[in-house]
Specification:
Blueprint lengths: L5 H12 L20 E4 L9 E4 L5 H4 L11 E4 L26 H6 L4 E9 L2 E5 L11 E4 H14 L5 E8 L5 H9 L21 H6 L4 E5 L4 H4 L3 E2 H4 E3 L28 E5 L7 H22 L7 E4 L9 H15 L4 H4 L10
Bound molecules: 2-acetamido-2-deoxy-beta-D-glucopyranose.
The site of 2-acetamido-2-deoxy-beta-D-glucopyranose has 6 residues, from helix 10.
Amino acid sequence: MRGAFAAPVVLLVAGLFGAATANVGDSCSTAADCGAGQWCFDCEPEFAGSSCVRSAAANPFQLANNSLPFNKYAYLTTHNSFAIVGEPSHTGVPRITFDNQEDTVTDQLKNGVRALMLDTYDFKGDVWLCHSNGGKCNDFTAFEPALDTFKEIEAFLGANPSEIVTLILEDYVHAPNGLTNVFKASGLMKYWFPVSKMPQNGKDWPLVSEMVAGNERLLVFTSIRSKQATEGIAYQWNFMVENNYGDDGMDAGKCSNRAESAPLNDKTKSLVLVNYFPSVPVKITACLQHSKSLTDMVNTCYGTSGNRWANFLAVDYYKRSDGGGAFQATDLLNGRLLCGCQDIKACSGGSGVVCSS
Ligand SMILES: *[C@@H]1O[C@H](CO)[C@@H](O)[C@H](O)[C@H]1NC(C)=O
C-alpha cells in the first residue's frame, strides 16, 4: 500500500522521466505513456482497458553477437506484410479483401520484423502485391506495386548495414524476369544473397557476420520451383521446411508440414518456418492467440521438427498481445537457439532475466 503522499511523488517522477518509467502492463491512454519498444493497446475482450505492451523485437545480433550461422537465429515474420489496414487504393477502385497487418513495412522492419511474406502477381503490366485468390490480381484485391514495397526494404537495408531481411514470396508472377526486373529497379540487387551460397543437405548457412561483411543481406525465396534455375531466385522448399498455414496450423498439439514442404523433421533443409495465423485474419482473436497459445505451438513444432527451434515465426497483426506476444515468442526462440535459455535476454547475463532451461 502506498502512503498518502506517494501518488504525487509517482506523478512527479513520471513527469520528470516521462515514458522511460513505463513498464509492460502499465495502464496507458496513448503510446506516449509507454516506454521505448512499446505501444498502448487494449487486448479486449481479454482485458478491459489499455496497457503498455511490446511493439519491438529484441535484436539477437546485438544482445548476443552475429558470429553464428544465419540458421542459428530466429526472425519475427509478418504474414502478408503488405496487406495493411488503411492502405489507400492504388487502382481507384475500393478494395474488397482482407488485411493482415496494421503498420507500414518500414515500421515493421523498424520494430524488428526480419522476414516478410509477400504475395506477388502479374498486374497492369507490372508486379503488384495483392491479396487475391485463383492466382489473379484484381483492382479490388490489389494493395500496391511491388516496387513501392521493395524500395522501403532497400531504404531499411541501406540505413541498417548489420541487418538481414528475408522475403518469402507466394509468387504468381509468370512474366519472364518479372520479379527480377522489379528487384533491379528497386536497388535491392546489391544486397542479393546468391542461391549458389545457400546450403544443401542440411548444412549450416554462412555466418551472419560474413553475410554482413559481404553485404549479401537480402534472402529471397519463391514458391515457383522453376525460378531457381531461370532467375536465380531460391525455391523456398529446397531450403526450408514449413508447417501448415491457416486454421490447419493452429490445432493445439499438432504441427505438420504443408503440402509443398518436406516433413518438418527433414534435416536436409536447414531452416524451419512456423506459421501461426488463422485462415481468415481476425483482429479480435489475434491478441489472445499471440499471448497464450503461440508459445505452445512453438514448443510443439520444436518437437515435430526433429528438436529444431523455428527460425521464422509468422503471424498476422504482429503487435497485438497482452504483453509480449510474438516478440516474446521470438525472444524465446532466440534464447533456445543461442544459449538454451527461455529468453534471448538471459543469454548475455546481467539483464535480470534468469535462464531456466
Ligand atoms: C556469440 O554468442 C553465442 C550465444 O550466446 C555464444 O555461444 C558464442 O560464444 C558467442 N561468440 C562470440 C565470438 O562471442
